[in-house]
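Q: what sequence does this backbone want?
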């Protein structure tokens, strides 16, 4: 396929810098900064018939703030606390809403172990995001499982729900009736007999772990183990599946389970070697209606190929590197969703990957007035944080767009690998990724993030085109789906499909709300395909072949470049209608002057002398017609 570009230079318009300021983020409780969690030890009893959890949890932490008189943890007010110990010494405690305060003096720089003995009975949740659930599905095998993301860990164990404070390691011990199995993150170090004909499954992880990735699942499971052999890992990676103890379930799902190895090997190649290779990767089946990427032990409802790929990819994006705030959940969900695309790109016909991104754009278009970045006023809304349209599909589309802007796959995947390496076992924001990508590529991504990460909505295009002899003309008009981001500036590919079946790919620079392009092409064109690889998040509202299309040159006369301290004079070759107005904005869509009536006048002067140098857009609104002209102030 022949490929060439038209004016595809990098955009140099000066727009407001994308900024990460403290005001953008929801405040966190001050006590979050009092101590650093080192270790969780959860030792509980559970079964597969109820959501009751009883036992105790220990939190080892170092005091990093000033000396404390109380040690504060999050624990639901509905959970009964029997006793609290600090370094094995029983202490007084008090409850305050969903907080537990252990009353004991703690010195700065010292490390303390706080134990809470508790009983959580009949834990209730809301749908998918329930702390502890108990259900059956068509296999009629009861399962009890946890899902703590984003703020539900406190509903089944005492904890500190602060993303930047990962525990250095954790133990999760679950005592269950002897005919059941319990799965959890880490390595199964032992299965020990317990009173009343029970067994204690002792899972231990030595990797840093966020509070919401601690989990368990209990059911009548059987174990099915395979191995992956990823490059960069000097030993096989264990894949430990806890599946329903049912021969038919195993028969139906064995082939799908066996594909996990190839996915581990793929992501180890594209990203970094599997980050938890010294422990395992695994799955616990539960009728949850989806999946949750618990570290090294995903909980999921079935072995759908892309579901497995998505949750596995979280082991890199979400678990190895976690979002520093759920306002930046894109770090988790955008990249894991894009990993679905990468899976199809590698293992399926190319058109399947294109169709995936097409569908992602369609789903993103459902959220016409929102941003990928979650505003602080919405961070408590779990369905906004985990919006399929925004955090997942538009998030994946943004990663794909960044790949397009970088324009070199080697550099793009080097950025992903370098980012994961820099923030390994820590947390990062969207702006951390932006800064790292800019440093590695030398490309300013401010405009990209202003428009598609912090900006709201997406561009909606109306495309008109015609061919006259050997010249093809194309008019691309667009406006933002949200008034908050009225203009998008980007390059975009267009495929010209010729009547003989061959095609030519061009790249056009979208710089204003109405851009016209002309290029020579001796062959007859049958159709245009706009953005054939779905690289630019957008909506194409219309695409028409026309005899002629309107242009502001039909009746507007003005200089497109004006000197410093010069006013802009706009003339008309045709007398505009009585409703005609002029509007001058900066390149980001901000009004620079009041909207000016221009009805029945042959010329009008706009006071632009005091405006700073830069690029502006002159809009002529003449009845139902709307035209734009780019103006450069020197």
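A:
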């Amino acid at each position: 396929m022949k490929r060439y570009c038209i004016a595809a230079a990098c955009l140099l318009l000066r727009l407001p810098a994308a900024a990460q300021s403290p005001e953008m983020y929801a405040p966190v409780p001050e006590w979050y900064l009092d101590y650093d969690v080192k270790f969780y030890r959860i030792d509980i009893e559970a079964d597969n018939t109820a959501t009751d959890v009883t036992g105790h949890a220990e939190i080892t932490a170092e005091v990093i703030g000033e000396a404390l008189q109380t040690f504060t943890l999050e624990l639901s007010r509905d959970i009964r606390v029997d006793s609290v110990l600090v370094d094995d010494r029983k202490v007084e405690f008090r409850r305050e809403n969903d907080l537990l305060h252990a009353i004991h003096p703690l010195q700065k720089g010292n490390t303390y172990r706080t134990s809470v003995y508790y009983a959580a009975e009949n834990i209730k949740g809301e749908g998918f995001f329930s702390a502890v659930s108990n259900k059956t599905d068509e296999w009629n095998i009861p399962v009890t499982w946890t899902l703590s993301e984003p703020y539900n860990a406190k509903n089944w164990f005492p904890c500190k729900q602060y993303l930047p404070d990962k525990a250095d390691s954790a133990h999760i011990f679950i005592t269950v009736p002897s005919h059941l199995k319990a799965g959890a993150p880490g390595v199964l170090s032992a299965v020990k007999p317990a009173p009343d004909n029970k067994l204690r499954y002792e899972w231990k992880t030595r990797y840093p772990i966020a509070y919401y990735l601690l989990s368990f699942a209990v059911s009548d499971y059987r174990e099915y183990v395979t191995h992956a052999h990823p490059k960069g890992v000097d030993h096989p990676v264990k894949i430990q599946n806890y599946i329903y103890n049912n021969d038919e379930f195993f028969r139906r799902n064995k082939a799908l389970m066996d594909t996990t190895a190839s996915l581990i090997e793929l992501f180890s190649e594209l990203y970094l070697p599997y980050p938890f290779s010294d422990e395992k990767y695994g799955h616990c089946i539960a009728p949850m209606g989806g999946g949750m990427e618990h570290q090294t032990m995903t909980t999921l409802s079935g072995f759908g190929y892309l579901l497995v790929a998505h949750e596995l990819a979280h082991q890199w994006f979400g678990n190895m590197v976690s979002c520093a705030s759920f306002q930046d959940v894109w770090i988790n969900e955008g990249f894991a969703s894009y990993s679905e695309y990468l899976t199809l790109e590698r293992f399926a016909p190319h058109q399947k990957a294109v169709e995936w991104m097409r569908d992602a754009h369609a789903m993103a278009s459902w959220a016409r007035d929102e941003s990928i970045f979650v505003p602080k006023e919405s961070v408590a809304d779990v369905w906004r944080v985990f919006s399929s349209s925004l955090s997942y599909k538009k998030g994946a589309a943004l990663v794909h767009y960044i790949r397009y802007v970088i324009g070199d796959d080697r550099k793009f995947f080097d950025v992903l690998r370098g980012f994961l390496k820099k923030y390994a076992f820590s947390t990062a924001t969207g702006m951390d990724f932006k800064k790292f990508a800019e440093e590695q590529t030398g490309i300013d991504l401010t405009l990209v993030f202003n428009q598609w990460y912090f900006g709201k909505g997406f561009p909606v295009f109306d495309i008109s085109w015609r061919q006259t002899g050997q010249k093809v003309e194309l008019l691309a008009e667009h406006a933002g789906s949200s008034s908050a981001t009225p203009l998008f500036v980007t390059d975009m590919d267009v495929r010209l499909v010729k009547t003989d079946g061959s095609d030519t790919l061009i790249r056009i620079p979208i710089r204003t709300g109405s851009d016209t392009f002309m290029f020579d092409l001796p062959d007859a064109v049958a159709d245009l395909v706009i953005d054939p690889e779905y690289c630019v998040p957008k909506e194409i509202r219309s695409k028409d072949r026309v005899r002629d299309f309107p242009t502001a040159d039909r009746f507007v006369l003005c200089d497109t470049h004006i000197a410093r301290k010069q006013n802009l004079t706009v003339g008309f070759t045709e007398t505009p209608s009585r409703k005609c107005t002029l509007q001058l904005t900066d390149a980001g869509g901000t009004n620079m002057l009041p909207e000016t009536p221009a009805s029945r006048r042959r010329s009008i002067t706009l006071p632009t002398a005091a405006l700073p140098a830069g690029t502006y857009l002159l809009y002529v609104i003449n009845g139902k017609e709307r035209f734009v002209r780019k103006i450069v102030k020197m």
